Amino acid sequence: MFTVGSTLPDAPGRSGTITTPHGRIRTPAFIPVGTKATVKAVLPESMRDLGAQAILANAYHLYLQPGPDIVEEAGGLGAFMNWPGPTFTDSGGFQVLSLGAGFRKTLAMDAVGTEADDVIAPGKDRLAHVDDDGVTFKSHLDGTRHRFTPEVSMRIQHQLGADIIFAFDELTTLMNSRAYQERSLERTQAWAERCLVELDRLRAAHPDRPRQALYGVVQGAQHEDLRRRAARGLASLPFDGFGVGGAIEKESLGTIVRWVTAELPEDRPRHLLGIGEPEDLFAGVEAGCDTFDCVTPTRVARSSRVYTAAGRYNLLVSASRRDFGPIEDGCDCYTCTHYTKAYLHHLFKAGERNAATLCSIHNERFFVRLVDMMRAAIENGEFAELKAEWLGRYLAGRSEA
């Protein structure tokens, strides 16, 4: 269930509350990613302490390891990973891109300008093949062959037991031709309808389980008419919420999200998939999305990069060696209140694993707190001022040392 709170006077952005079987999520909210039922290098207890309201895991990865039956037997995703709050799982659709084309999302965005129906990254082998019924793929772990269909994705996510799950979709690259994007959109719409039917069947077969909310995923790349068509098609179906997916050019993110949210019902939540840079979060919140997930906070932390309100900073620079201050003055995270840049610099130089843990705690807190600030600013009527002041300072110092 979703209730809308305050709204922006001149934009679709809003605050609200999502109610799940494992608690409420006050929105807008940043949802940290725990791909394999763990936020890399960070304990669930630490995620709770830094203010995370929910965790998102990946159905594809948990299907391969340890298997959804193990997670189900443990009592579901939250119980398995000792996380007491709400959980999300994505459908595995992202792997249609990352395995099928060999591109990371950002690489696909950087490659705009070339159109092709059969896109593959240089030097990569195609590990996934899409047809109208589903996707056949090879495991990146051992090369074994597997098949995902909408029904299989629903069964896996039902076993995993997350509070919020996503319909199986095809994520295209920005290099795919317009004709392919149109065919893919029809396929994703058909898959969405099949997901609803299968989840209804699973709910009837297991009436004792908490009700899982199912989100449809809007695709359509950078084409306004396709984005709006996809949103209208999914809005006509009884989804509990919606995901906004796809590789999106950074400069167009706010515009594309507004196309989508203009077509979606206001009484259901919207999740922007895989978006995590601060300026993108401001754009997504202003355009009307309610929750966000991204692996960026922990991914960059493992390579010594940390976020501050004055820009992103690399702790391996020589200036950190004798800097006995925190990563960011005034930050209330455990890392900043207990450790110095000099110590973190030493940990990275020494190859110590807790360097990643301490920097991941800081980065996750930074993102959770930032979106919390946006929510408070919406409710206080100060979002425009926060955006101008905060981004002005951040973007001026964004270049890394």
What are the key terms here?
single chain, alpha/beta, 401 residues, 2 domains, 16 strands, globular
Can you tell me about this structure?
Mean pLDDT is 92; it is low at 102-115. This protein folds into two domains: 2-294, Queuine tRNA-ribosyltransferase-like (TIM Barrel), CATH 3.20.20.105; 305-396, no CATH class. Helix 9 (224-235) links the parallel strand 11 and strand 12. The chain is α/β, with parallel strands linked by helices. The chain has helices at residues 44-49, 59-64, 68-73, 77-81, 94-98, 105-110, 150-160, 178-205, 224-235, 253-263, 278-286, 296-301, 334-338, 341-350, 354-380, 383-396, and strands spanning 2-7, 14-20, 23-27, 29-32, 55-58, 87-90, 128-130, 135-138, 145-148, 164-166, 213-218, 241-244, 270-272, 291-294, 305-308, 311-314. The strands form four sheets. An eight-stranded parallel sheet has the order 4-14-13-12-11-10-6-5. The protein has a three-stranded antiparallel sheet with strand order 1-2-3. It contains 16 helices and 16 strands. The radius of gyration is 21 Å and the shape is globular. The N and C termini lie far apart (45 Å).
Brief overview:
The protein is of the alpha/beta class and 401 residues long. It has helices spanning 44-49, 59-64, 68-73, 77-81, 94-98, 105-110, 150-160, 178-205, 224-235, 253-263, 278-286, 296-301, 334-338, 341-350, 354-380, 383-396, and strands spanning 2-7, 14-20, 23-27, 29-32, 55-58, 87-90, 128-130, 135-138, 145-148, 164-166, 213-218, 241-244, 270-272, 291-294, 305-308, 311-314.
